[in-house]
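How a chain folds remains the central question behind the approach discussed here. This step matters because it turns folding into a mapping between discrete strings. The sequence in question and its structure tokens are set out directly beneath this paragraph.
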Amino acid sequence: QQSRNKVFYLQEFIEHYNRDIRILVMGNRVVAGMYRVGDDWKTNIYAGAKAKPLEVSKELENLAIKAAQVTKTAIAGVDIVESDRGYLVLEVNSIPGFTALQTVSDVNIAEEIISYFLEAI
């Protein structure tokens, strides 16, 4: 009876390669991207995964921008996984952390965010 009024979320498990991709999108452009590589299926940096450099392909760029546009997210951390079915968007974060991303990117992300806001006003 107690579980009757609770919310449960079920997600399909997607077989992947112990890594995922985070792409930072601002407006209609990709600012930076990285791999997050874990020892198992967990690829969260705070769970011990490591940030690794990623050269964002045109396919990933288009997918990340489209995901940000569909969700109407101006500054988005788009998480993507490589699967047997190709690239799949896992989630779009509207308040993305970028500390780990900054360690593997030559782009000054904080400066990019400030510039984005200054251009918008």
